[in-house]
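Case study.
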Amino acid sequence: MPNEPRGAARAAALALPLLMWACALSAAPPNPAAGETLYRRGLLPSGEPVQATREAGATLRGADAACVNCHRRSGLGSTEGRITIPPIAGPYLFIPRGKSLEQQGVPFVDTERVNHEAYTDESLARAIREGSGANGRPLNYLMPRYQLDDAIMAELIDYLKGIQVKPAPGVTSKELHFATIITPDADPAKRRGMLDVMNQYFVDKNNAVARTKAPTLYSSHAMMFRVERRWQLHVWELTGQPATWEAQLRKYLASQPVFAVISGLGGSNWGPVHRFCEAQALPCLFPNVEAPVGHDSDFYSVYFSRGVLLEAQLIARELAEAREPIRRLVQVFRAGDVGEQAARTLQAARTGSAQQIVNRVLKAHGASRDLDAALRELGPTDALVLWLRPQDLKALATVPVTTSRVWISGEMGGLEQAPLPASWRAAARMAYPVDLPGRRVVRVDYALSWFRIRKIPVVAQQVQADTYLACGLVSETLNHMVDAFVREYLVERLEMALDHRALTGYYPRLTLAPGQRFASKGGYIVRFSEPEGPRVAALSDWITP
Amino acid sequence: MNVRTPGIVFAALMCAALLGLGAAAAATVSRATVSYETPAVMLVREDGKRVSLPHELDDGRPVLLNFIFTTCSSICPLTSRTLEEFQHKLGSEAARVHLMSISIDPEQDTPARLSEYARKFHAGPEWQYYTGTVAASLAAQRAFDVYRGEKMSHTPVTLLRAAPGEPWLRIEGFVTPDELVDDYRNLLASLGSPARAGR
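After joint prediction, the assembly is written out as follows.
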């Protein structure tokens, strides 16, 4: 990671011992990738799983024994219950006793205990192999004792020494640079609504920074000042075909490094953005995406929910539990819209069921009268799933209802504002991947009041509330990070901060953890209560499929 | 939480520093005999069945109960490994003890994820995993005094009970498999006749 040098003398002082250490190993030059593979995946250069034991004789191997499980990807440690897992990024291991983190130019992390002797390569190897700390005392019971030969031990230590804890690109002494990403197929109204919120949030944030005067009392604690940086927003608008987006994003990032991407707005394809964030090790926090890509095993992208893909799982569950037989499952969606991905997910979830699955694809921007043809020849033993937008739902008014088993997408249709004609309201159930209106009202009102006071027009309520929530979550997480501006640490602290969050907007609960990248896990199945208007009633409890 | 005062930061740093200093001690294990009232909540077992917590606890067998979540990467793998070893060390006797692990992250821990987790720790048929609604999991956590505000604050607690109606042995900290076998045997012995507790 590129960083401004803190002075040639200091660089030389740092480089000399590293150089000497590297020379000592010149017979077998260290392979940093081997150290990283061991740290993150628990694998030895041979591909064999690493073996470790605990004090009481319990054995661990491979991924279960990987350092990353406890010390995390950042190397800055973690806290679980009353157990503090210390940082093992090089600078923390080699701080001489009696020196403060600040004197060493090392950021404060609340997992660091500054009361240990500085490790040497030898004492560090002993700690890893035998579980005794730099002062000779046994390490916590959680710390395994690893069976490593000298060569891989050197590679692991080399990796630990190389873990960067200096401010990431996009962080200067005065500013924190953030980006937000908008794809060309994003809805223009939502785009405006999202940017209004973000721009105002950054203005407010910077006004608060400007007002904060650090009292003299803390003047010796330089790091107290360092956290108050101005937030700078860069809007990365993509153009053209999705195949070109990753290159555009790399160009944006090269010309203006950013610490993280906050929020963002996608259309039907977020894949290139997701891949870019993972490849560039850039946190992409809570974009407004209806069909997120990626897996829980990814690291840098986190989403509020799986959106329409979650809806597909909710509907699959309903179909699996249907009391009366369903002969056919007919799905209707427009080519290229997110309904296509939702339909695919539902189809995969129903594979193996006795139902025949038929997908009826409407033209990408065709007329709503296409619906007539798509909905022909449906009978009462058919289930119909409509992955459609409001204008298509409105057009259902002229189409007769021939089955009582109809599901629509809340995410695509506009939740309780979906313009579903009265004739369809008795038959149709809606997948509803957020909290019920009556239950979320207080949490969402908090955002709405903020918009009202700042005269921000509400044009896309959920997108705007989610954007406001994303900004708030990043701000809150940064407060916990003090001056450790490491991108991986941002994601890890966000995971921890989320459980404490009371104001969760549209979602009843948000939680993340290592291996959890979608913060809200469930949804309801609802039905309109009246022939007109937005009143809905839940037909299910909160379901987490 | 957009505006922060240096005073708050300072206080937070001081607290964090003190906690950090205090956490250096090696793991210690403490034991206490405690009575708990089992809440009448419904949970979902890893086989997808809805079951009553009191019914699962009171099937006549000795019970070992703990609380986990499957994406917990540091404490839970260790406590789960300890239970695996415990079953292994008991050998054929393992079938007489009901092991129960309740998820404290029930929305993430679906029955399918719990089954996968159980396989990873070679859980025998007498070791079962439970999820359910957030409210049900919270009620269970509160009843056994393991609720610590959120999942990342949880602490290693193992609860052992010789038979329905008997008090619980609460073990806090990283108990080893050997110690756990001793605790189990002592608990049964204290009942007078092991057959009384067995099925």
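Observations recorded in class. The CA atoms of residues 404 and 427 of chain A lie 5 Å apart. Chain A is about 35% helix and 15% strand. We will return to this complex in the next lecture.
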